[in-house]
């Protein structure tokens, strides 16, 4: 007769099996799910892990930025001129032709004047440079947060790509922290607008977009893509409303200047014919100054710009159409998914409550006397000894998987963000490719979209990183050389070709 049976007969009580598995502890769950090679790999390669990695990126970037500000000397370029231009406005001058600084006349719209006038007061008339640098740390981190949010939604780029590109760009950190240009503020507002559009907050997005244009006119390079986004998602009347919002913001901000010296304001802040100096160009160093400054060259670039926009209009329109359809599908399915998840949650709660009641009854039944406990201890000891002998003969024990939690229905519709971001980033990139002149601070216009554009192509990973590395090299070559300018154009054309080849090949699928 088995010992347990004999014991049950002698005591008249039922004894439960001595080796019932206990539920895993929280520490064991954490160990099993996170402290393993699979999870570590996912943090590097899985785009779905980017939200977690983004927190780490921002924390490290904050420390890095503070170290840069504290240890790298500040270089004066435009900050003093910005302060002089704003000082003239604060003294009551609304004639744009009279607002000047050491570097020349004021050439930015009214939003720039208001923002840098605020900086003028905060930094003691522009003299407290260190405080201004810390303000730009905040601007930099806000910009990174908005960009990472777009990338997290799209689930397109592996985390390691974002880590490498964001931490290795000397020029970008310099533009923000050591030069204090206005370009980062314009791009910050642009990315805030893109986040609003992706969230379906169209009017807020248009307000932010127009504010970005009011800081620097380069934001208009994104306009063709955003216009197509309006047309496909909002229709013609909805598009007209958003354009009215954008125009209204410009009129409101420019009112003090438009009501006094309108022509001087329009000519000074929205001068499309302004000629840049050849000595500052990053992309056309290989041209002679006479050719670089000729009107014929500028008209040729404008024609190329319009031609490329027309060429890519069809695939971009189809991308936006599919984005619109998926978002509409999300709105249709969201109530059903939420209802199903509520049912699953209620069923899981009932099941857990039932298990707790059963466990409570068991616990009452399983209270043992002192004699029973002694017997079980000796019994367990014997079983363990037998198990050790068997273990030597058998294969190692495998770890059982954690108990599955309640089912949760979900569809990651945010991945459709890919269909909206690509045409918008491409619109701006075409503008960069056809730009009459690129200055060093202009790198921020498209730096944050480069990983996305590069990883859209079908090039190998090595070639993708080579393109990013060469572009970074070109922007860090000062002064620019014939080689650096030609290399930059080569990288731009290779990237544009890779994007176009894939987009046009996918047109039948998008249709």
Gist?
The protein is built from 21 helices and two strands.
Q: Which strand order spans the largest sheet, edge to edge or round the barrel?
A: 1-2
| Mean of all residue-level pLDDT scores | 86
Shape: globular
**Number of DSSP helices?**
21
- Number of extended strands: 2
**Element-level helix/strand string:** HHHHHEEHHHHHHHHHHHHHHHH
The main pleated sheet reads as:
2 strands, antiparallel
Low-confidence stretches: 393-406
| Helix content estimate | over 70%
What's the Cα radius of gyration? Answer: 32 Å
What structural category do the secondary elements indicate?
mainly alpha
Beta fraction of the residues?
under 5%
Terminal CA distance reads 76 Å
Brief descriptors of the model:
511 residues; mainly alpha; two-stranded antiparallel sheet; 21 helices; 2 strands
Describe what this molecule looks like in 3D.
By secondary structure, the chain is mostly helical. It contains 21 helices and two strands. It has helices spanning 3-11, 26-34, 37-45, 50-71, 79-90, 110-122, 129-154, 159-167, 170-179, 183-198, 202-215, 223-258, 262-269, 289-292, 295-365, 370-393, 417-433, 450-456, 461-475, 482-505, 507-510; strands spanning 100-101, 104-105. Strands 1-2 form a two-stranded antiparallel sheet. A hairpin with a 2-residue loop joins strand 1 (100-101) and strand 2. Helix 4 runs antiparallel to helix 7 and helix 19 (461-475) runs antiparallel to helix 20 (482-505). The longest helix is centred in the middle third of the chain and has 71 residues, at 295-365. The radius of gyration is 32 Å and the shape is globular. The termini are far apart. The model is unreliable at 393-406 (pLDDT under 50).
């Amino acid at each position: 007769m088995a010992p347990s049976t004999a014991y049950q007969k002698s005591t008249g009580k039922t004894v439960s099996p001595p080796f019932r598995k206990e539920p895993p502890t929280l520490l064991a769950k954490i160990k099993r799910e996170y402290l393993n090679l699979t999870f570590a790999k996912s943090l590097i390669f899985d785009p779905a892990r980017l939200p977690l990695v983004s927190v780490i990126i921002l924390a490290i970037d904050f420390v890095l930025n503070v170290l840069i500000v504290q240890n790298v000397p500040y270089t004066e370029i435009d900050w003093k001129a910005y302060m002089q231009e704003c000082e003239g406005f604060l003294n009551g001058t609304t004639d744009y032709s009279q607002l000047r600084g050491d570097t020349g006349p004021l050439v930015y719209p009214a939003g720039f004047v208001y923002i840098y006038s605020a900086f003028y007061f905060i930094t003691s008339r522009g003299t407290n440079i260190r405080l201004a640098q810390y303000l730009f740390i905040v601007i930099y981190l806000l910009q990174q947060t908005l960009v990472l949010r777009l990338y997290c939604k799209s689930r397109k780029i592996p985390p390691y790509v974002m880590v490498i590109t964001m931490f290795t760009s000397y020029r970008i950190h310099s533009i923000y922290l050591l030069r204090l240009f206005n370009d980062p503020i314009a791009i910050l507002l642009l990315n805030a607008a893109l986040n609003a559009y992706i969230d379906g907050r169209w009017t807020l997005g248009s307000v932010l977009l127009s504010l970005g244009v009011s800081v620097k006119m380069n934001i208009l390079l994104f306009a063709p893509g955003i216009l197509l986004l309006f047309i496909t998602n909002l229709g013609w009347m909805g598009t007209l409303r958003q354009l009215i919002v954008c125009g209204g913001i410009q009129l409101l901000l420019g009112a003090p200047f438009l009501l006094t010296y309108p022509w001087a304001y329009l000519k000074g802040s929205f001068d499309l014919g302004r000629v840049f100096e050849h000595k500052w160009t990053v992309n056309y160093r290989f041209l002679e100054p006479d050719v670089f400054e000729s009107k014929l060259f500028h008209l040729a670039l404008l024609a190329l710009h319009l031609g490329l926009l027309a060429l890519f209009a069809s695939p971009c329109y189809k991308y936006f159409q599919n984005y619109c359809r998926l978002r509409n599908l999300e709105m249709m399915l969201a109530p059903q998914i939420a209802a199903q998840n509520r049912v699953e949650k209620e069923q899981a709660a009932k099941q857990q409550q039932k298990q707790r009641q059963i466990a409570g009854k068991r616990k009452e039944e399983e209270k043992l006397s002192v004699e029973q406990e002694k017997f079980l201890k000796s019994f367990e000891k014997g079983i363990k000894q037998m198990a050790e002998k068997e273990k030597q003969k058998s294969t190692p024990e495998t770890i059982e998987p954690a108990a599955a939690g309640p089912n949760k229905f979900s569809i990651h519709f945010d991945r459709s963000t890919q269909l909206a971001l690509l045409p918008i980033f491409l619109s701006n990139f075409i503008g960069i490719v056809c730009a009459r002149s690129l200055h060093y601070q202009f790198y921020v216009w498209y730096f944050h979209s480069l990983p996305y554009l590069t990883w859209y192509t079908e090039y190998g990973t090595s070639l993708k990183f080579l393109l990013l590395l060469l572009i970074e090299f070109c922007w860090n070559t000062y002064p620019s050389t014939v080689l650096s300018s030609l290399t930059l154009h080569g990288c731009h054309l290779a990237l544009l070709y890779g994007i176009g080849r894939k987009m046009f090949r996918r047109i039948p699928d998008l249709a």
